[in-house]
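Handoff note, outgoing to incoming analyst
You'll be picking up this chain. Sequence as last confirmed:
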Amino acid sequence: MPINHDELMRALMILADEDGLKVFVKELLKGGMMAGAGAMIGGAIAGPLGLAVGGGIGSCLGAYMTGDKLKPLSQVIKELDRCKQQDLYNHMMGALRDVDLLDAALFVASLRSNVALRTQIISHLVNFIDKQLSMAVKQ
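Most recent structure output, in case you need it:
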């Protein structure tokens, strides 16, 4: 019996944690709010000129404070909606079609002992995250 959806997701999360894979996450909303707040405060204090200056300062501060943040890949996988998790499952099962998978425990054990298989799985996982979710993975 092939590995089921939930088992594969858990196995991928274990693999991502063991390899320390992280994803860059941008906090665009927070940066936009800082830019808007700076413009509003500058406009209230100095009128139109303050609006421009405050917006510029708020934008720079927002860009500095909300730069790329790293999030564990396992957390990203866990937070995917069911549809995206199913897409990931299908993608990974396509990559694993030649591997005999009985259960998640054997799968994780084989990944620990088989470097070539582990490298292949990580490559397919990173490819999915990059192409389907448009997120950059730090290895």
